Structure formats: structure tokens, C-alpha cells
Amino acid sequence: MVHRALRLAAPAVVALLAVTTACTGTTVQGRPGASGLRDPFFPKAGNGGYDVRHYGLDLTYEPDTGRLSGTAVLTATATQGLSSFNLDLDGLDVQGVTVQGAGARFNRTGHELTIRPAGELEKGEEFRAEVRYAGRPRTVEDGDGSEEGWIRTDDGAVGVGEPVGSMAWFPGNHHPSDKATYDITLRVPQGYEAVSNGELRSRADDGQGRTVFAWHAAEPMASYLATAAIGRYKISTTRSPGGVPVLNAVVPEEAAGSAPALERLPEVVDWGSRLFGPYPFASAGAIVERSGTLGYALETQTRPVYSGAPEVELVVHETAHQWFGDSVSPASWKDMWLNEGFATYAEWLWSEQHGGVRAQERFEAFLDGDTDVDPSALEDWAAFPPAVPPGPARISDAPVYYRGAMVLHRIRQEAGDEAFFDLVRGWAAERRHGNATTADFTAYAEERTGQDLDEVWDVWLYGQDRPKAPRR
Ligand code: ARG
Ligand code: ZN
């Protein structure tokens, strides 16, 4: 009996003490930050309790052994009192962690790296966490069988991270809702190039056989859009007629094949700026790997990665993502159609504005399965509604792309060209360098166009049935 009473009393005393300290205005006890942001598809991606403002990565890579080593310095703000907080890191060895310059205890379970600072962090406090780590970063297999994370190539490697592969090469708050600026410094053996997001601030010899490339991404970036590409690329730079600096890195084998599409990249950037509003970043470009390196291209910020020489339509797609996906990022991985629907529709717009198939014809081709107009028209575009993918393995499936584009075309049919293009530009401006949910978009679309678009949402965006041709 006595024993039992004591056990009950202990927590009560602790609670009483906490209340007392809270009332007297002294430090409120911090608590652990959440180990995930409860994304509907990737609940453990990202972490709660803090907001990263900046990542400083300083990484050395050995192409011969595949070993990566260095430090990640995160500058973040605590959004609650924190006794501990998590970063996401998949694989690799953590050699040491400091918070505010003082050694911090840490432990690892799965991809959660839990850090316990020597002193608690207060709500609103800005702090600096430094993680020293090394190892051979892993390639991550996605639910749909494609590869991301760290991919070794014939002469180097490339880091890509949609949706969750970036945690394979640097620790962080790996969810698109926490965007931050980046400085990515890459140290590689002489003779190699190392390319990343943003602008090259410096390129120097370290006096010990390595070249040090310092890249700076000044605008907020979701971590899945970060890249590091190491190899023997041919580097070329130019500027779009509208003034956007362009830097391309192309493996020698793909140089000739890439030239026709990459020569048009400056024009594509300026075309997008006219249609979608000012280009959101300080530079543009491309990284072209050997064909077969990845089964897809990725819209890594300012500098998409291509797997083999791209066609101009693919360059249009990845460039359109700079507005839709990179500048306006999804609030969760369920909102992926906001990325892919827009990027696909941008291809349709490019085509109709450059003497090709009109968007209306392409829309009809999907309804009719007419592969003469679009070879993708036979893909299972109606398998599920774009705003409701059946699971994390399906976020890159055909409906997210093609039916997503058809949703946008339906808005255009209802609102007319003038209101539709005003909406597209307005949306890119409204959420520039931010995040958005599907509900944010549908509310904005109705408000901006002044149209009741319920039928478009109910049938095309959320409806389980295969939509029929609209009566016009
Ligand atoms: N977002 C990329 C694009 O369409 C495609 C990524 C595909 N990833 C995947 N796991 N299937 O531009
Ligand atoms: Zn895409």
C-alpha cells in the first residue's frame, strides 16, 4: 500500500514543481522536439521543435572509395523549449555534435539522430548545431523502385533527394515544409569538378591536391532539391537574354547530344519568366549525367539533374519546376500534383506556343487515348485522383502528372485564357519561396478567377471515377 502511494506521489511532486517554476517566471522546462512532422506519406520525415534558417555543408568526397566526410552546420530557431531535438540522417557515422559550440550528447535510431544539448534551448532562441560525420553514403530505393540519395557514377557521384533521399548525404530537417538557404562547399581531388545549387562563390586549390568549390544558394530551398554532383564535367556558362546567369555541367559523353536542348535553356528561362512571373532564383543551369544514372530527371534547385541528354520538353518541365515545386513547394508529399501538374502543363503550353500540339488537343488525346497526339495518353492517367494518391509509392505515378495537368486545363476552360494566366502568375507570386497545400491552391484559384470551380475539384482533382469529357 505505502509503496503504491509513493509511486503515485512522485509524478505529482514533479508536476507541482513544474507548475511552480512556470508561475514564478523562471525557466519553463524544455521537452523533446517531435521526431517527425506527421507528413501523411512520410510521417517521420522532418522533425518538430525548430526551424532551420541555413545549412552550411563542408564536404570532402573521394570518388575512388565513395567516402564522404565533413561537417553540417545548421542555424535554426527553436519553436518550443527544447531538451533535445532530432535531425534526419540515414546511414553514415556521426563523429561529434556541438550545439552553441558546446559538445552535445547524441544517439541514433533508424534515420533519427537525437541531439541533447548541454543546456536546454529556449523557445525563440536561435542556435547553431554542428554535426561532424563521414562514411559511404547510401543509395535509397523508393517505393516505386527508383533510386535516390547518393548515386555513384563512372567517375564520381550525384546526390538527389526526392522525396527523402537527401538524408542519405547530410543531416537535416528533411521535409519540404522547412526551407532554408544553403552554402555547400565541396572538396574533391584535382581534375574533378563539383557542382551544386546556386552560384559558385569561389574555386580554389587547397594546396593538398584538392579543389574546393564553394556554392551559395541565397533563396530558400527544400532539402529534397539540394544536389552535389562530382565528376569530370564540361562546364559552360552563359546568360539568358533576360539576364539570368546559366551554368551547365555535362559529362563529356553526353555533350554533343545535350547541346540542342541546352542551347535553348536560356530561352526557356525567359519564356517561363514571361508566363509565370520573374524567375525565382539568381541562376539557372543543368547537370547532365550519363544516360541510365537515374531513371528520371530531378528539378534540383537552379540546376536540375538529367540522366542522359534531355529533350527540350524535359528542359521545359524541369525549368517550370523552378516556379512550381522549388519556389512554391508542397506543404506535404500528398500535394505532389502541385509540382507535377504544373510542370507537365508547362510542357503543353510550350508546345502550343511553339507551333506544336495545342493543350486542348492534348487534353482530348488523354481522354481518347490517342497516342498519335501524345504517346503518354495510354498511360493510366485516371487510376486515382491527383490530390489523393493511394500511398507514398504512387506520388510519381501518371495521374499526378497528366491528370494534374488536366485539372489546370479544366480551370483554363472554365476561366478563359486571360483569367487563367493571371491565376498562374498570381499563384507563383503569392507563394513565392514558400509552401502550399492543395486546399490553399483551390481557394486561391476560385478567389483569383472569380469562378466557382467545384466541378473541377470534385471530378478532376478529388473524384475517384475516371472523368468524362466535359460538356461544352
Ligand atoms: N520530380 C521528378 C520530375 O518529374 C521526378 C522524380 C521521380 N522520382 C521517383 N521516385 N519516381 O521532374
Ligand atoms: Zn516533374
Automatic annotation (TrEMBL):
Residues 1-24 form the signal peptide. Residues 312-460 form the Peptidase M1 membrane alanine aminopeptidase domain. Its cofactor is Zn(2+). It catalyses: Release of an N-terminal amino acid, Xaa-|-Yaa- from a peptide, amide or arylamide. Xaa is preferably Ala, but may be most amino acids including Pro (slow action). When a terminal hydrophobic residue is followed by a prolyl residue, the two may be released as an intact Xaa-Pro dipeptide. The keyword Zinc applies. SUPFAM superfamilies: Leukotriene A4 hydrolase N-terminal domain (SSF63737), Metalloproteases ('zincins'), catalytic domain (SSF55486). InterPro entries: Aminopeptidase_N-like_N (IPR045357), Aminopeptidase_N-like_N_sf (IPR042097), Peptidase_M1 (IPR001930), Peptidase_M1_aminopeptidases (IPR050344), Peptidase_M1_dom (IPR014782), Peptidase_M4/M1_CTD_sf (IPR027268). Keywords: Hydrolase, Metal-binding, Metalloprotease, Protease, Signal, Zinc. Pfam families: Peptidase_M1, Peptidase_M1_N. Residues 54-225 form the Aminopeptidase N-like N-terminal domain. Its EC number is 3.4.11.2. Belongs to the peptidase M1 family. This is Aminopeptidase N.
